[in-house]
Amino acid sequence: MVPSEIIQPLEDILITNEDDIQLASRALKAIAHPLRLKILCILGAATEVSVQDIVVQVGTSQSNISQHLSILRDKGILASRKHANKVFYRIADPRILQLIGAMRMAFCTLPDPR
Predict the structure, then answer these.
(1) Where are the alpha helices (DSSP H) in 5-110?
(2) pLDDT at residue number 3
(3) In this structure, how many other beta carbons lie within 10 angstroms of the beta carbon of residue 39?
């Protein structure tokens, strides 16, 4: 049994502010699609990635990728820059990487550290 002084109060780990609830809900909704989550994982492993490189790594059409990138950009999760005829994307909010890391810890099989 865990001593009660070690257990963190729910108010310290749950979201109680209405604005924060709305912000978190919008972020979760935007990344809830498997393809968008995959895009974020690709971008999280690099400083920035071109749309063409994302298309190659994800393995779907450029129009499909562009639609999903647009959703993520409109929600403030991604930022982009244009250089010549290429568009590069990066994660705009580092909290998204923290969220993905928490999801990995909660839902994914992690390698055995031994």
Answers:
(1) 10-13, 18-31, 34-44, 51-58, 62-74, 95-107
(2) 54
(3) 25
